[in-house]
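Morning. Coffee machine broken again, so started the prediction first thing and wrote up yesterday's gels while waiting. Chain of 164 residues, entered below exactly as on the submission form.
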Amino acid sequence: MDKEETIEQAKALRQEDKLNESEELLLALLEEYPDDPLVLFEVGGAYDVMGLETEAIPYYERAIDEGLEGPELLECLICLGISQRAIGDFQEAVDALEQAVNDFPDDNSSKTFLALAYYSNQQYSESVRLLLDLLLTTTNDEQILSYADTLDFYKDNLDEVWDD
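Came back before lunch.
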């Protein structure tokens, strides 16, 4: 079985909730391909779905360092940021998710997770601003859209108070 087939089999095992079998398959593949970015990413994912974020993070970071590209890079950055946020490394989570947003500006899922990371990092204004922007650019709700101009103004003026 080649690398791609092994990865697909590991993913299928994960879908079947056979997490240990998936992990074993990927760790064996890692021995054969120790610096392969896709293999590193998948090993990180195996640990991540097992709730072992601390173990997953170094594999995600190595996958990025080894040149992971395309949609896998986007997913890796998101998973890295989510894992970092989960263990309380909030600034690192912000950094990873900002990279995802900068490198993949059309992806809204990374923006959503970035808003959560901003919140956890006590960057409340950035969090609300990003969520409002995301809401305004993705909603079809006519009631919200009827206030689009007002919400757009407030997202850039969150802390303003107007007195007579």
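Residues 3-122 form a domain with the Serine Threonine Protein Phosphatase 5, Tetratricopeptide repeat fold (CATH 1.25.40.10). Going to sketch it on the whiteboard this afternoon.
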